[in-house]
Amino acid sequence: MSMKRTNVYADPEDLAIIKEAAKRRGISEAEIIRQGIHLAAMANRVWDEPLFSRTFEGPGRTLSTSEVRDTVAEAVRRETGPSSGSAA
Question: CA of 15: how far to CAs of 8, 30, 53, in Å?
Fold first, then answer.
């Protein structure tokens, strides 16, 4: 994997914690910093698709558990069609 060098300013207390953690874990301080950069990158990534791409119409109030179950079951029945029903 190709890497690119960069310089950042960091709080001395944070660097001390990283130094202790690296020694305890037996890895380099740079590896811990790379992991932190990766976590920051993923937390700020903009995804191409929304997490929830499906929406369901509702009555404008919080549904009961049975109403949610029935609504989801009906949506599944509509998508799977009559040919994939179960023998109940």
Answer: 12, 11, 41
